[in-house]
Design brief:
It is a single chain. The protein is an all-alpha fold and 927 residues long. The chain is 68% helix and 0% strand. Helix 15 packs antiparallel against helix 16, helix 25 packs across helix 27 and helix 29 runs antiparallel to helix 30. The radius of gyration is 55 Å and the shape is extended. It starts with a helix and ends with a helix.
């Protein structure tokens, strides 16, 4: 019973469908849309059908509450007014007007719409119309044919499991697996016959793998020869160029997607540009180059051809078209170009460049001159093609007639003429172009060239060279009269250019005539000095010499100017020019001791000792009480072995000049000659006269120490320290005396007193560190060094010692600290160079040694030890030329200081040695 009362859930399947039911409408499956069918494939039920279905079901139609509202009055300005008869009549009239307006064109509009719809349906029929004939054909399909239609199969594209299939394992696999773990313990008969594991070939021979490798290499080389075109067989030879193959690979441009996209966008922009403004020539050129960059040469040529048609008067378009085509086509293009732009020099020059024959080039250029006779560039190109000077001269003569304002053509014609005719040409040029300074300079150079052309008497040559000065001066006046005002910087550049081209006298004439322009009277000396230094720095020695010569004529009594001129001649001139300058210098500045000494030294270095004596005698007359001249005379005689004369000069000098330095040199001279008692007597007298001169006490103490009289030496140093407590060297010598006597404790005490008397002195701290190191206290030396760096944080000497006091792995970090604290100190720079030397970084070490020796402004203040370290480095890693270069630089610098340099240089045994020899000794002593 219960089962009968239970309702059947599937009863709806046998019920008839509702009147308005459309299969699949609820889930949106009533039709589908494709690209060829805009809109739904099947229309839904119309409003009438839906209303009829609702009426059958007894449902009331949905009523829009706003459908009876007047849209004009519902939300308008008169929403609250009463709808009267006048309003109704107006609405009726408007409605009638709308109907009449609509009926006027209704027939024509409906016909057009029907025609458009039919055309659209013909072009894009609906899917159901396309398959209508096939659907009608289904009506004749029988039930048997329908049942025989195969199933479509699995269309879900899901991976299904494959049918598992099994196979029987073969017996060989089973047997092989069984024998896999077994071992062979005997040789077979073939192995026994061949004596081991060699596998013989069938014919009894053994394989030679070396021959196989050689054969393989031979086959490979043969193939490579065939590919490169060097094979003898013509049948396998190819057209590959072995030299240009890699170059051709480089020319292959591989473009990324981004580049291709950029090219497409640029192409669109250029297309828009040339379409919107077809007369814009740069747009056509840019579009053609874009196609060329993209590798589409045909499109590029087509594009530039359109540009030539649109812009026939633009020369750049024609030149671009010629560039994009081959040589023959380019000639045709440029031939067309000259029909439109015959006045374009670029077109004619490009046409001449396309010709490979000189005669053809000349023909093109002369044709161009017929069209453009006033083009300087065309005339120059035409003249350059002439191999005969006569023909070139004829062309230039015609050119200056056509273009009389061209300075270049006048100068070119003057260069081709003989000197006499060149003068006439330049005179004509000067009249034609009175505002050109190049013509006046060319005239001066012509006169200079004539003066040096042949062998002439000195007076005649000087007279002709004086004409150069007059010509340049006249040129400057004429230019000023024609309101051509060149600045002095421009004139100096012209002078330097003349010097670089070999016209030295013209350079000097230009400077003489223009160097005083635009310079205030009080600034002349500084300005001319800086001009000379700038010219020397550029390598224009003639210009610098001329500037100094003019300055010396204005300021003949300036010792600094004569010194600069002498240094210039010493560095870049000859010995004769230097002697001439020094002779003039001492004539104008007789009280300048340094000039007399330079002149005497140059005479001495030249080996002319009598001339050096004569110079010093003249110096005595002008400076009778000059200490430096007396000492120079003593040194000259002593170096040349005239000891008695030197001693007599010293006696006279003590009487005439009577300076502390002369007394000291007297004592040193006697000490060098071994006359120690005489030296001590001289020192005793000198100390009474000059008790504040510390070097007297030093020499006295050293003589006593040389005699092993430590008590007397100690007394001398003590007296000196008492008289001159601020002299550091006295304290150091006293400390070293105590060390030599075995009293290190007293040496420390003396250095402590010295630091109290001279606080902040890094040399005293360095000596204290040395005392600790020599006494074996490395830890105490580090402590003293740390204290010294606290008191003298910028001392390069102490930082250098700190670098080498560190272990090797930490030296680089210590050097970085030293560079931050004292980066410009020569000792720090030298230590960094030595670190690079240890690391075998040769180039860097050499660079840092150069920085170290050039850290001081005055070359004589450089440390001799640093020069010796550099020489030691070059001995190990440099060439003989590099070693000689270092020695030359050191001798020129004349170093005087250094912890190792001074003891060796001051040693009596080395008193007669030169700077080169002392440098060698110091380099050997360094470790």
């Amino acid at each position: 019973m219960a089962a009968k009362d239970k309702p059947n859930k599937l009863a709806f399947l046998s019920m008839p469908a509702p009147a308005s039911y459309v299969a699949g409408l609820g889930r949106g499956a009533s039709g589908f849309t494709t690209r060829s069918d805009i809109g739904p494939a099947r229309e839904g039920p119309s409003a009438e059908v839906i209303a009829e279905a609702q009426a059958r079901r007894g449902e009331e139609p949905d009523i829009d509450p706003d459908q009876f509202q007047d849209p004009d009055n519902e939300y308008g300005l008169f929403a609250g007014t009463t709808y009267e008869a006048d309003d109704e009549e107006a609405d009726r009239i408007y409605e009638q007007v709308d109907k009449n307006m609509d009926a006027r064109r209704r027939a024509r509009r409906e016909a057009r719409e029907n025609e458009e719809l039919a055309k659209h349906r013909a072009e894009r029929p609906k899917i159901q119309q396309q398959f209508a004939d096939l659907k009608r054909g289904l009506a004749v399909v029988t039930d048997e044919e329908w049942e025989n239609i195969p199933e479509v199969g699995n269309l879900t594209r899901k991976k299904r499991k494959r049918d598992e299939r099994s196979f029987v394992v073969s017996d060989s696999v089973i047997v092989g697996d069984r024998a896999r773990t077994e071992y062979e313990t005997s040789l077979d008969s073939r192995q026994q016959a061949t004596g081991g594991f060699e596998t013989p070939a069938d014919n009894g021979t053994i394989t030679n793998f070396a021959e196989m490798s050689q054969a393989r290499d031979k086959i490979l080389s043969l193939k490579l020869d065939q590919v490169s075109g060097t094979a003898t067989s013509t049948g396998l030879q190819t057209a590959i160029d072995p030299k240009g193959y890699l170059t051709s690979l480089d020319s292959v441009v591989l473009k990324t997607d981004a580049e291709i996209g950029d090219i497409k966008r640029a192409r669109m922009l250029f297309d828009s540009l040339v379409k919107s403004n077809p007369k814009h020539a740069p747009g056509w050129i840019a579009a053609a180059r874009l196609e060329e960059h993209a590798g589409r040469m045909v499109a590029a040529r087509k594009m530039i051809k359109q540009g030539c048609e649109q812009c026939p008067k633009n020369e750049d378009v024609w030149l671009e078209a010629a560039r994009l085509h081959n040589n023959d086509d380019a000639k045709v293009i440029l031939a067309n170009a000259v029909q439109h732009v015959g006045q374009s020099v670029k077109i004619w020059l490009a046409a001449a460049d396309l010709e490979h024959d000189v005669k053809a080039k000349k023909r093109v250029l002369r044709k161009a001159l017929e069209h453009i006779p006033n083009s300087v560039r065309l005339w120059k190109e035409t003249v350059n093609l002439e191999s005969s000077a006569v023909d070139a001269r004829i062309l230039l003569s015609r050119a200056v007639e056509v273009i009389p304002q061209s300075v270049e053509l006048w100068l070119a014609l003057a260069r081709l003429e003989t000197p006499d005719k060149a003068k006439a040409v330049l005179n004509k040029a000067r009249k034609a172009v009175p505002t050109s300074h190049e013509i006046w300079i060319a005239a001066g150079r012509l006169l200079e060239q004539e003066a040096y052309a042949t062998e002439k008497a000195p007076e005649q040559r000087d007279k002709e060279l004086a004409a150069v000065d007059k010509t340049i001066e006249a040129g400057v006046r004429e230019l000023r009269r024609h309101q051509v005002l060149l600045t002095r910087e421009q004139w100096l550049k012209e002078a330097e250019r003349c010097e670089n081209e070999g016209a030295i006298r013209t350079c000097e004439a230009i400077i003489k005539a223009t160097i005083a322009m635009d310079v205030e009277e009080e600034d002349r000396l500084d300005t001319w000095t800086s001009d000379a230094e700038a010219a020397e720095a550029k390598g224009n020695i003639g210009a610098a010499r001329a500037i100094l010569a003019y300055a010396l004529r204005v300021f003949p009594d300036k010792k600094s100017l004569w010194r600069k001129a002498a240094d210039l001649e010493k560095a870049h001139g000859t010995r004769e020019s230097l002697n001439a300058i020094l002779e003039r210098a001492v004539h104008h500045c007789p009280q300048a001791e340094v000039l007399w000494l330079m002149w005497a030294k140059e005479k001495w270095l030249a080996g002319d000792v009598p001339a050096a004596r004569e110079v010093l005698e003249r110096a005595f007359v002008a400076n009778s009480e000059s200490e430096q001249i007396w000492l120079a005379a003593v040194k000259l005689e002593a170096e040349n072995g005239e000891l008695d004369v030197a001693r007599e000069l010293l006696v006279r000098a003590r009487t005439v000049a009577d300076t502390e330095r002369i007394w000291m040199k007297s004592a040193v001279f006697e000490r060098q000659q071994g006359q120690l008692d005489t030296a001590l007597e001289t020192l005793a007298t000198a100390i009474k006269k000059y008790p504040k001169f510390a070097k007297l006490y030093m020499i006295q103490g050293q003589i006593h120490q040389q005699r092993k009289d430590f008590a007397a030496a100690r007394a001398s140093y003590a007296a000196g320290i008492k008289a001159v407590p601020k002299d550091v060297n006295l304290w150091i010598l006293a400390s070293r005396l105590e060390e030599a006597d075995g009293k290190s404790i007293k040496a420390r005490a003396l250095l402590d007193k010295a630091r109290l008397a001279n606080p902040g002195n890094d040399v005293l701290w360095a000596e204290a560190v040395g005392v600790e190191e020599r006494s074996g206290g490395a830890a105490q030396a580090k402590t003293v060094l740390a204290r010294g760096l606290q008191e003298c944080p910028t001392s390069g000497l102490l930082w250098s010692m700190a670098i080498w006091a560190e272990a090797r792995p930490t030296r680089k970090a210590r050097s970085a600290d030293a560079l931050r604290k004292a980066g410009s100190d020569p000792w720090v720079l030298c230590s960094v160079a030595r670190l690079f030397w240890q690391e075998r970084k040769i180039d860097k070490a050499r660079h840092w040694f150069e920085r170290a020796v050039s850290a001081n402004e005055n070359p004589s203040d450089t440390w001799g030890d640093i020069w010796a370290w550099w020489l030691k480095f070059e001995r190990q890693h440099g060439t003989p030329e590099q070693q000689e270069e270092v020695i030359k630089k050191a001798v020129a610098a004349e170093p005087r200081y250094g912890p190792t340099w001074q003891p060796i240089a001051k040693d009596i045994a080395n008193s007669r040695r030169s700077t080169r020899e002392i440098l060698e000794l110091v380099a050997n002593a360094l470790h």
